[in-house]
Amino acid sequence: MAINEAAVRLEGVNKAFGSFVALKSIDLTIEPGELVCFLGPSGCGKTTLLRIIAGLEQQTSGRIFQNGSDVSHAQPAARDYGIVFQSYALFPNLTIAQNVGYGLVNRRKGRIELTARVNELLTLVGLPDSGAKYPSQMSGGQQQRVALARALATAPSLLLLDEPLSALDAKVRERLRGEIRQLQRRLRVTTIMVTHDQEEALSMADRVVVMNDGVIEQVGTASEVYERAATPFVADFLGKVNVLKATALGGGQYRVGNVDLTLPVNGNAAGDAVRIYLRPEDRHVEGDLASLPNRLRGRITRIDYLGTFCLVELRSEALGQPLLISYSLNQLHDLHVREGGEVEIALRVDRVRVFDDLSSQRASA
User: Fold this and answer.
1) For the chain, does the N or the C end have fewer beta carbons within 10 angstroms?
2) Are residues 172 and 297 in the same domain?
3) What is the pLDDT of residues 146-163, one digit of tens each?
4) Which residue from 169, 166, 228 is spatially nearest to 197, judged by alpha carbons?
5) Is 203 within the bounds of a domain?
6) Contact (Cβ atoms closer than 8 angstroms) between residue 244 and residue 320
7) Could you give the number of structural domains in the chain?
8) Residue 83: DSSP 8-state
9) pTM of this prediction?
10) How many Å apart are CA 237 and CA 199, to the nearest integer?
């Protein structure tokens, strides 16, 4: 691989299934050693894109490069990758050692060399004494580790993970995603993972590729896509968010109901219909609020208890729209927050996003 050559580069990749267009003009560069997550709702095209990279689907048009080589029409066996599927796809009639070493047999490795490599991989994934067992004797999490070891057996330059943790329960999933991330960093293997789990993508990826309706909406680090969403879809898809209908007044002033908010955004002309995207945690709820701008007072109409924090629905007559605000569990108790009670908050707007209200534009067209 040439110096500074991308591990994977996609140029104008399109995919159509008859009249249905699954992918539209996908351009993406993935650097060596990166872990990149394709994140999006069901049907957004993320798995189709992974399968095209693997050669398991043929793109309608566009080019795919791996380590500088054009693999646009190469067969899967001619592409240098290992893959782990959601279903594990282990051979039930083979032992764990035979499953892991399956890809090495065709490479005519000697028995001693093959056994050493299998033992090395099983130790790497935390299953050093499991070689003689069969898949049916392993838990779901252990089977996924075996599938990962098998994918790494040939030391590929690219690892593809197709929703590898979605079939596991929450505790196992949380533990395994940490283990996979540590292993990926240790081996420095370029990795592409498909997931619909936001927490998984944000906690594991160097960069997140947020997809919707066959296009890439945004590519960025976890903090970039969460805190600085590039489109309304990204702002709405990632986490909880308040979407407030507003009118721009100019000069960074926006009117929501009967409330004027001062926002660090000044790209809208007076009279523009906009939507303000504000996350529940972007607020001040304690301390000296009197000195802060964008204060609101309202009545609590609902509390959703979520363990370490709670989501509180706040209704303010002046605002005219309900607002979700998050409180830590300690704040909930210390500030005596309860349903039916009144609270004062100040909106923290440094991460606010403002987008044109397209529905208003369509209605007036």
Assistant:
1) C
2) no
3) 999 999 999 999 999 999
4) 166
5) yes
6) no
7) 2
8) E
9) 0.91
10) 12
